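Researcher: Can you fold this with biotin in place?
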Amino acid sequence: MNAAPASQPDIKLPPAYRLIAMDSVGSSNDEAKILADAGADEGTLVWAQEQTKGRGRQGRTWHSPRGNLYLSLVLRPDCPLADAAQLGFVAALAMGDAIGSIAPPMLEVTYKWPNDVLVHERKVAGLLLESKSAAGGALEWLILGIGVNIQSHPDDARFPATNLIFESVGPEVNDALLLEAFSRHFLTWVNRWTEDGFAPIRRAWLSHAHGVGEAIEVRLAKDTLRGTFRDLDETGALILELPDASRRVVTAGDVLFAA
Ligand code: BTN
């Protein structure tokens, strides 16, 4: 296994988590998967200093040099896979709140469907959900992988990216500080989801969503749709209004905004 443990960092997470700090890994999601398959408890959190094979959504590479945050959390939600995907919105809100808790009061943090976090309309964080189901179809584990650009970002990303230092989120912002803040906010939001379902998550996400009511392009696996971003439905799917006024429910794809 190409993974080195990091020296024990000075960081305190709530007791719901078990922190596995690593130095260099291929992908922290892969490390978390190995742990999950070996029976690791929910709350096991792999934190890596760098990734040599960081993965993004749709098979893309995730730029993963030192100085940014890379984490993968093992979850074992007791619900169907379709509902578990809502945890991507839960995590995006938690990361948005974590960034907001460190940043100056007026910093503009928004969300891009499905699970990106933007600062000043540029991507600072992305999420990769990967899961395994048991033979009968029940969800065995869900890995929530999150990458946050703190010190650097790629210049050639499909959607414009930025990083927290560049956006003046705070000169003292670093991965440990952000991880601690995220771990607290994630517990708050996940408890809300467990108790009240997706409705409050949807409301909170929509109230800071980027591009609602605007012209967007949605890149699907084999097709590109153009229309107006109308809403998020009660499952987390994007509602796109097409030029003929019909509505299309989109469950997976990449959103780009009109220039
Ligand atoms: C995306 O926006 O495309 C999702 C990016 C997810 C990146 C994170 S970094 C930690 C975890 N390990 C990975 O290999 N990917 C996720």
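Model: Folded with biotin in place. Residues 215-257 form a domain with the SH3 type barrels. fold (CATH 2.30.30.100).
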